[in-house]
Structure to design on (525 residues):
């Protein structure tokens, strides 16, 4: 084992992995995190804690991770290149590892234009691939990006994201190959609604043998309303929501839409599980954590394995 | 006035590895003034490359390389020489290199780093073509600049928000990474994107380097 990560243990034991997601509050209130963490505990192997998602100011990911860890989760700290240069990134990596956080997801980050401080100066000193490589070199070579050595390395299980639905489609598998070459241990994908396209991408991934070198967790998320589906379809960059998905939600009475959204998500979980090379799911029920336990149970993914770190 | 400086010869030669026949282009505008790619430097580069065993199929020094209309007219007279070349070496700033890349369906190598625009932005009117980063990457990106034209200055390929050829940040602007992938595919050079590009040296850029740049 490279780290003390629970997620690494689950994946290495070849158990179909489940990760969740937790969004920190736009305030200094720790209770929000405790409440969400209590719901997720026992249902996920590890849990992403977002880092200023959509460029909105929220509690720092590492701080919320610590609270989530106290509640018994194995947190995955998210780290974006949008707000930090290579100096700040490395300082955070050291601090995060010292605090006992075991996993880190390396992201470029949503552009500052989308958030609540659109006039901010974006950093983007590194891109996500360079960030993966830097963290990997810190862990495995005990080296800073500048080449200098360190005494105690940060033992982090390294993740990256990939979006099979973005363009240029033919470059998406080669881009994943770069993330693997840079040192990613696991990949979480953009939310899958278009299962056919995801399967096509997975085939390109298998053709390159990448599924054997990195563990791929398919992103899934329940949809609460027809409006939300439409919004994702038309307004969220890099999302692919087929017409059939919107139609399915439209086809049920209004008070049953959220139930149908959960069912639809469970169907997708069952479909992606059948695809060769998918090592788990990443369930993003942001601001709908209550839905997670019943979904994981209905998908037949209980009980979650327990490892003593 | 765009201030540029020739890249180290070693770097230039590494770009030309595998190419035997080279067409050389310089500029009588800024590059002449900064002695990075005027008549004299193009002649010098010609003999240097010949010494290194390259064949120069032809060379031209254009009055204002960043003026695409002018450059197009001028290059017409060199159709044969350009066709005979494996690739084109351009000795001027990033704006000029990108003009040539847009006009010619051949691999275009940047021979210079652009240190500063000196307040002017060459002849380009519709888009930012050079951000004076001081360490030109056009060699690896098909002659389209991801520093000036990608909203996140990405160096290892498109972000997850590129869709339908548009940038996630503004649907009115093209995603330059889509354009880079398209152009390299057309040139049969997509493998150029497989390389892991290391973190950029921003200390030579105008963005985070010293505020006033000189050639020294
Ligand atoms: S969509 Fe394209 S141009 Fe826009 S930030 Fe992403 S890679 Fe850069």
């Amino acid at each position: 084992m490279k780290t003390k990560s629970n997620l690494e243990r689950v994946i290495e034991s070849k158990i179909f992995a489940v990760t969740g997601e937790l969004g920190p509050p736009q305030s200094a209130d720790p209770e929000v995190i405790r409440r969400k963490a209590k719901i997720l505990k026992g249902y996920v192997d590890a849990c992403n804690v977002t880092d200023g998602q959509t460029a909105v100011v929220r509690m720092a990911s590492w701080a919320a991770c610590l609270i989530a860890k106290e509640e018994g989760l194995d947190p995955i700290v998210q780290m974006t290149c949008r707000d930090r240069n290579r100096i700040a990134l490395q300082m955070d990596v050291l601090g995060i590892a010292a605090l006992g956080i075991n996993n880190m997801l390396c992201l470029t980050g949503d552009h500052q234009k989308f958030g609540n401080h659109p006039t901010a100066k974006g950093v983007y000193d590194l891109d996500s691939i360079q960030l993966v490589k830097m963290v990997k070199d810190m862990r495995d070579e005990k080296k800073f990006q500048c080449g200098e050595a360190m005494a105690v390395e940060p033992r982090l299980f390294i993740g990256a994201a990939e979006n099979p639905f973005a363009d240029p489609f033919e470059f998406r598998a080669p881009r994943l190959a770069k993330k693997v070459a840079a040192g990613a241990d696991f990949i979480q994908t953009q939310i899958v609604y278009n299962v056919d396209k995801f399967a096509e991408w997975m085939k390109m991934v298998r053709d390159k043998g990448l599924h054997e070198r990195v563990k791929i967790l398919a992103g899934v998320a329940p949809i609460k309303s027809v409006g939300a589906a439409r919004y994702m379809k038309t307004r969220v960059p890099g999302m692919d929501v087929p017409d059939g998905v919107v139609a399915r939600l439209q086809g049920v009475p209004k008070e049953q839409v959220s139930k149908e959204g959960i069912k639809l998500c469970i169907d997708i979980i069952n479909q992606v599980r059948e695809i060769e090379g998918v090592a788990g799911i990443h369930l993003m029920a942001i601001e709908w954590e209550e839905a997670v336990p019943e979904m994981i149970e209905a998908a037949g993914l209980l009980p979650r394995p327990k490892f003593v770190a | 006035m765009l201030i540029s400086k020739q890249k180290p010869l070693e770097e230039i030669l590494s770009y030309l590895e595998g190419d035997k026949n080279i067409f050389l282009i310089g500029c009588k505008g800024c590059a002449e003034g900064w002695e990075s790619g005027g008549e004299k430097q193009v002649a010098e580069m010609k003999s240097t490359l010949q010494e290194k065993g390259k064949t120069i199929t032809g060379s031209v020094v254009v009055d204002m390389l960043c003026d695409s209309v002018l450059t197009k007219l001028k290059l017409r007279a060199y159709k044969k020489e350009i066709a005979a070349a494996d690739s084109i070496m351009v000795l001027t700033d990033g704006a000029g290199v990108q003009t040539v890349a847009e006009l010619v369906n051949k691999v275009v190598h940047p021979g210079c780093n652009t240190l500063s625009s000196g307040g002017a932005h060459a002849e380009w009117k519709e888009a930012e073509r050079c951000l004076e980063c001081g360490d030109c990457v056009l060699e690896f990106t098909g002659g389209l600049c991801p520093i000036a034209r990608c909203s996140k200055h990405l160096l290892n390929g498109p972000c997850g928000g590129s869709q339908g050829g548009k940038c996630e940040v503004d649907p009115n602007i093209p995603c330059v990474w889509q354009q880079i992938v398209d152009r390299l595919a057309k040139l049969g050079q997509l493998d150029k994107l497989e390389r892991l590009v290391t973190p950029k040296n921003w200390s030579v850029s105008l963005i985070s380097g010293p505020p006033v740049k000189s050639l020294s």
Chain B touches chain A at residues 151-165, 168-170, 175, 177-178, 181-182, 185, 190, 193-194, 196-200, 202 (CB under 8 Å). Chain B has a mean pLDDT of 89. DSSP finds eight helices and eight strands in chain B. The first strand of chain B starts at residue 3 and ends at 6.
